[in-house]
Request: fold
Amino acid sequence: MKRTINILISLIMVAGMVSCNDGGGKQKGKRGGQGGLASNAAERVYVAPGEHDEMYAFMSGGFSGQLGVYGLPSGRLLKVLPVFSQNPENGWGYTEETKPMLNTSFGFVPWDDSHHPDISQTNGVLDGRWVFINGNNTPRIARIDLKNFKTEEIIEIPHSAGNHSSSFITENTEYVVAGTRFSVPIPQKDMSIKDYKGNFKGSLTFIKVDPETGHMDIKFQLMMPGFNYDLSHPGRDKSHGWFFFTTYNTEEAHSLLEVNASQNDKDFIAAINWKKIEEYVNNGGGTTVPAKYAHNILDENTHTATSTMKTEVLQVNPMEVPGAVYFLPTPKSPHGCDVDPTGEYIVGNGKLSADLTVHSFTKMLDAIENKKFDGEAYGIPILNFEDILAGVVKQPGLGPLHTEFDDKGNAYTTFFISSEVVKWKVGTWEVIDRQPVFYSVGHGMIPGGNSRKPFGKYFVALNKITKDRYLPTGPELTQSAQLFDITGEKMELLLDFPTIGEPHYAAGIPAEMVAPNSRKIYKLAENKHPYASVSDSDTKVVREGKEVHVYMNMIRSHFNPDNIEGIKVGDKVFFHVTNHEQDFDVPHGFAVIGANNAEMLIVPGATETLVWEPKQVGVWPFYCSDFCSALHQEMQGYIRVSPADSNIELSWSLGED
Ligand code: K7E
Ligand code: CUA
Reply:
């Protein structure tokens, strides 16, 4: 059996490579460049100069750790929002204010791998308030505020490793979930890897979201068997109150998973009745255990982040809450776990399966009610595959990964190996259309596709392989996204556009739900930063031992002060710089020679702090790094650095001879 599967996998891998190359060849031959495109495709993606895009698309940065903001249909990159990785472009993770955002129980972690953005919802409909996104590698969930377009909160997930089945939200943003891809010893301990089976555990973490502030707090962690929890989606409408997670490696292999985790004919989708567990927990259920995890919040009034180390978490064993957790057998190492807009259908995308399996929520409830079980795993009842089956999409393609939904009862599944998107009818399971993608698509995205109300105009294919789609740029190319019009029976390819990092999932929303709320400036009068120099009379330089605090402000086109003397080698200088501009889109930069961090970009009304440790005697310049006015090149200053034992008094000035 092992051998057969081994051969099957090898075949599929070869097929994958061939289809990638083939696809390109075929495309060129068949479609003759633009020949196959609808003749007015250019018109449909063209956003004239000065016009705005119709939708925002928030695309995960993957291994960049950030979140890309794109416009649809143009595919234009509007912004890179720094989340889990330091970003010298604006000083994220380099300034004193933002460093605490990247604090974890492992210390300062300036990078992560971000996969799944999800936009907040109210009553199952996108509400445009926040985007949540997961950090995979050092398990974290971030919340980005869509008024400020800023990462305002990051919470670390303890007892997790490879935070992948995250960060999906329930239909009133009650919870954001974080599931572990890798099972690990919980609590962590020194033990033999060979003792994995039966000893390692997988945690599924439910994080409560405050409906007013969006602040996150871990409500409970469900301690599941040691499988890999790959992806998840919430129930909605009729299935609201449940959450579904795909699992693989139910074999509990700990080595050569490409073979050893492909032995079982079926893995599971774990169905979690979180409302039941919430009730149990609200009545005092669960066990509080030690845990160490950071909770970081950026305050929009002080412009400063704080990091708090938490020390315990509430754990729940599924056995304590009978009727809360079930396993739905799902063929062949499923990846995506997708729920249709009605909440009735749960699609398991079996990577190694020839067919696509769709479970019925109603049938699942019936089977549970009638206790029709087909055994159990670690005490968790396994439902009978046939009892809960809604239907099968027969041989739709090879290597299904993810499914999205439109507002007309259609589903769109991405196939990595056969490199295509397949449209099928929910309920009849018939294939309606298939379109090749270039190449090897991962996730697809329909704006609102993960809600009760998708906006079914566009489908974006987020492809893994680019090859010949753009001018070559050496061995590494950007990823390629493709935009389809899905308003008709057949999908129409409109546009290719490059994306940065590696977008896995994305979340889209009509611009009108976000743009009107977008902040233009921070009001200087509301700046509560402890080191702000809100008026010119606040500017000063203060020595505290070897630490020197410079209270500086900036406005077109000078710094105040711009001459500083009395700094010594060995000092640690904190430049606290406040931007006095109160106009939209007039940030200033601050850069100083030899700084061991970055520049910083200060938006109107805000204060940021850069630390500089002068190492050499001399007179050193600092300057504005963002071209802000016709006299931008005049926006500069000098700082005199004297020997460590010098007697030069601190002094500062602006405009003095
Ligand atoms: Cu399929 Cu991380 Cu959602 Cu990538 S995952 S594709
Ligand atoms: Cu301020 Cu350039």
Summary: The longest strand covers residues 287-299. The radius of gyration is 27 Å. Confidence is low (pLDDT under 50) at residues 1-35.
